[in-house]
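Researcher: Here's the sequence for the chain we discussed earlier.
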Amino acid sequence: MTWTVYLSGEIHTDWRAQIEKGVKDAGLPVTLTGPVTHHEASDDCGVAILGAEPNKFWHDHKGAQVNAIRTRTLIGKADVVVVRFGEKYKQWNAAFDAGYASALGKPLIVMHQDEHAHALKEVDAAALAVTKTPEQVVEILRYVLNGELAGYTEQAAAAE
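Model: Thanks. This is the structure I predict for it:
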């Protein structure tokens, strides 16, 4: 069985590429999906497709609605949702995605650094795992998909 993992959140670092490489290197049966990560395209998709808006609120509103078609659909189809909160920006959209995934009963993995633990305590409480690195996410996926745990699985196999 191939699992679908939705990668939500921060778009300014290469964490998605690190998870993609880790999944590939581990040979995990995973398909990765996520939002449009081209910042300007994501912001402007509504007005680019549906027409200009002189008011910034309606400009953003159109874009958010068009993007929601993608995010709601892909989160709904995901087996696991990973949400990364970066260091630089307040990612309200990432928090919304985490809440949406939680409301759908999706297994949620959250990734952030220690300095955000207090601000994200409610999000963390909804998650089944709270991580700091893409490598930890890959190791969780390896464990839940294959039952492999570094330092344990090799010992069990050697004993057999």
